[in-house]
Each structure stands twice: as C-alpha cells, then as structure tokens.
Design brief:
Low-confidence stretches: none
Structural class: alpha+beta
CATH class of the largest domain: Mainly Alpha
Shape: globular
CATH architecture of the largest domain: Up-down Bundle
CATH topology of the largest domain: Glutathione S-transferase Yfyf (Class Pi), Chain A, domain 2
Helix content: 55-70%
Distance between the termini: 47 Å
Mean pLDDT: 95
Largest sheet: 4 strands, mixed
Number of strands: 4
Strand content: 5-15%
Number of domains: 2
Order of helices and strands: EHEHEEHHHHHHHHHH
Strand order of the largest sheet: 2-1-3-4
Length: 233
Amino acid sequence: MALKYYFDLMSQPSRAIYIFLKANSIQFEPKPVALRKGEHLTNEFKMLNPWQKVPFLDDNGFILTESVAILRYLSCKYNLPEHWYPRNDLLKQARIEEYLHWQHLNTRLQAAMVFQQKLILPVARQSKIDQAKVDRFKAELPKVISHIDTYFLKDDKYIGGDEVSVADLLGVCELMQLYPVYEEDLYLANPRVKAWMERVRERLNPHFDEGNAIVYRTREAYKKIGPSLGAKL
C-alpha cells in the first residue's frame, strides 16, 4: 500500500515534508487538505487524525502526525543519506536536534504569527490588520534571524555542516511564510541567512519551487488585497 501524505501547502511544515518526499524520490499518494475550507474539521478527518491538523502520514495504517517526527521517520525508514538526519554522527545529529527543538518557539512561532496577523485573521474575520500585534511578532524576528546566523550557521553552509538537512528545510520553509505578506526584508537584510536560503532553494529545486508555488501565488494575491486590509506594503 502506498504511503499516504495529508497536507496543505499553505502550511509551512506541510511544504517541508512535500519537498523532502519529492527530493528523495519517495513514492506517496498525495492527500491534499484545504484548511481554508475546513476539510480538517470533518468527522472523517478526525478519525484519521484526532488533532485535526496537517501534515500527517498514513503508512499502511500507521499514523504519524508531527512534522519533525515524520522527517526523522522517513529518514530512517528509507535509509536516506546521512546528511538529511545523521544517524551515525552524534555531534551533527545533536546540532540538528537542537535546531528542531528551538525552532518551535522561535522561527516557526514568530514568522507564522506575522503571516497569520497580516493575512489569515483579517480575511477570516473580514477585519483590518491589528498592526500592534504584527509589530510585536515582527520585533522578535530579527533576533531569531540573528541566532540562525551567528549560532546555527556560523561559518557553515547549512545547519550542522556542509550539506542540507531536515533542519535547513524546516527553517527555510518557516521563513518563506513571510514572503507572501511582503516581509522578506526581515531575512534578506542578513547576508548570511539570505545566502543560506538561496542555497537551500537551489539545492532542492525544482521541488522547492513546486512546493512553494502557492506561496508565490499568495504574494501576488496579497499585493491586490493587502491595502484593503490595512497592510503596510
């Protein structure tokens, strides 16, 4: 039975796993879920995933729901190249694990909340952007980006070394959430982080651009509706 992958490409970790599956030629049955239409709130979906979130895997009846766990699982199950998730180099594994734990309340939280406050909530509520909340989350992002630069990357090409890992993929997909709402200057202003993001994109293309196509389209849509939401473009 084919691996089933449930995802919405507007979700950052959904994109990361989608790109990962494609880049490693792992065969899967795509199961797109439109969160904006509430498809994750049905009883049928809840029977598969009680958390009613994406992404998640159904591997012949084995359900796995957390993106970090999914990436580890796939790396080990398919015996993928060590650079993705080192199994035999404890130091590299520990550095990647460090980022995977750190990112939840840093890269992921801050970038996701800027996107949510500038687009998701105003559209859902038919209201103006709460600029004070946007500014609060934006204020944390330069610190996050600086930590990626000075601590996680330092003089390396990628987090953990000279080759791309699951940490890089998750990190870049989270920061890409700023692109649709015209906040990419937050990471482009840092030369090392900018170069790292471009390196990851080039290393994983054409799958990176395929996975992020919806991000690029959303930017064009936001260009038209942003002013009506009270956005500062």
